[in-house]
Amino acid sequence: MKVVIIRHGLTEWSTRFTGWTDIDIVDQGVKDTQKFSSRLKEQKIIFDIAFTSYLKRGIRTLWTALDTLDQMWIPVVKAWQLNERHYGALQGLNKAETVAKYGENQVNLWRRSYDVPPPKLDNDDPRQAKNDIRYKNVTPNLLPNGESLKDTYNRSVPYWKKFVEPEMKKNKNIILSGHHNSLRSIIKYLDNISDSDIVKLNVPYCIPLVYEFDNNLKQIKHYYLADDQEIQAVIDQIKNQTKK
Known about the structure:
- With 244 residues, the chain is of the alpha/beta class.
- The protein has one domain (12-35, 42-184, 191-209, 218-242): Rossmann fold (3-Layer(aba) Sandwich), CATH 3.40.50.
- 39% of the residues lie in helices and 12% in strands.
- The protein is built from eight helices and six strands, in the order βαβαβαααβααββα.
- It has a six-stranded mixed β-sheet with strand order 3-2-4-1-5-6.
- Strand 2, helix 2 and strand 3 (76-78) form a beta-alpha-beta unit.
- The chain starts with a strand and ends in a 5-residue tail after the last helix.
């Protein structure tokens, strides 16, 4: 049984703190998803169910992957708990300009630490998720206004345990399209990564990460469908997003 997770493709806000802002992927993001999903097609995995977030960059990436696989017919489950980390008052700000204003150390603390949240949105900020129709059926006090990676873990991993693992127990092949920090949270759980080590982990855009499990949900192995050089090139691109 296989579980494949994919980080969404490149967006026009790759140099900004995006968070829960609903930004779509650009043409390059579509092309990259098609490229790497073709490698997934070569594996001849037939998926039974798909999961993604409420954000269009996750949804579009999933659609593109399923289209490339010719498996658009499978059930798709969307969950706000799989959304990207909420970047609070940083959402929409240019990363390099934020570094220039607050300093590299402070921005790295907001961006890369495990349990330090960014400045939170004011209650009357129009960017509050309670003002977004997507979340009209979500209990308002569950909606964040700024999250650390730990906060993201504490919503995405319980969702994984409650809704994804039962499908795994049925021996279903699963594909999940998500976001950097929700996926880092899930990977932390699956690979038992420490709080201190998870801050060093980067998940590359679009490259499928394949997990294989036995019938007892014990992990057999995991691997990216790309070579080390390709993976590093994408990760370097991510690391350079705070530089002008």
